[in-house]
Amino acid sequence: MDTKQLACAHSSLILANNFAPVSEALTVQAIMEITKSSRHSKITGDFTENLVLYWLSKYGFESTIVDHTGIDIIARNPKNNELMGISVKARSRNTGKEKQYLRIGNDHFPKVEAACNAFGCVPYFAIVIDELDTIKVFITSMQHLLSLHPMRQTSSGWKMTDDWVRQYEGDPEIKMFEFKHKTTDWW
Fold first, then answer.
1. d(Cα 74, Cα 83) in Å, to the nearest integer?
2. Strands 134-141 and 155-158
3. Can you give the pLDDT at residue 13?
4. Which region among 16-20, 31-35, 115-119, 125-129 has the lowest average model confidence (pLDDT)?
5. Sign of dihedral through CA atoms 165, 170, 173, 174?
6. pTM for the full model?
7. pLDDT tens digit string along 39-71?
């Protein structure tokens, strides 16, 4: 199906579902094939570091991006004065890969630990997943992450199944925020 046929199918579906809840109607994003740029991985990393930085700052955390092996952000928690060294790990998932876990190589954990020791920080992770129409962000200590998802032979994995996401939502040691997004008109 080419782009014009998809647009016609989209219009027909919207008309046919005129009285259906919005969640049942397809958006342009749902029927549009997404082709990422050659630098999308780097851009995703930069965007998500700044997204986490913005959210921390919005809620009173004095914070900054750092260019250091192991951590990406240093932030002071205004509630308990804890100095956090945060490693941001992010993935931009294509359709069909929404529930895949985010792999964190075992070799990364000592780097986070070393950086945090150098700066006097408590090691944290911010996990950012962009899938379908939602960007989900989870922030937790490295200690808690490893208690949930211990290192295996080569890595730890942050699970993204519906059951795990519900568990994260009920866990007081995991802070979360999310954005819903919709592409309504695009090339």
1. 7
2. unpaired
3. 35
4. 16-20
5. positive
6. 0.80
7. 988 998 999 999 999 999 999 999 999 989 999
Could you tell me the CA-to-CA distances from 91 to 7, 73, 124, 125, 158 in Å, in that order?
28, 18, 17, 14, 11
Token pair belonging to 174: 């995991």
pLDDT score of 187:
82
Cβ atoms 84, 52 nearer than 8 A: no
Hey, what are 61's tokens? 């955390």
- 75: Cβ–Cβ under 8 A, 6 or more apart, which residues? 53, 56, 61, 62, 63, 64, 83, 84, 86
Nearest to 160 by CA among 139, 136, 124, 144: 136
pLDDT tens digits for range 125-156: 999 999 888 999 999 999 999 999 999 999 99
* SS3 sequence of the chain: CCHHHHHHHHHHHHHHCCCCCHHHCCCHHHHCCCCCCCCHHHHHHHHHHHHHHHHHHHCCCEEEEEEECCEEEEEECCCCCCEEEEEEEEEEECCCCCCCCEEEECCHHHHHHHHHHHHCCEEEEEEEEEECCEEEEEEEEHHHHHHHCCCCCCEEEECCCHHHHHHHHCCCCCEEEEEECCCCCCC
Q: For residues 145, 126, 180 and 160, what is the CA-based torsion angle, rounded to 10 degrees?
A: -30
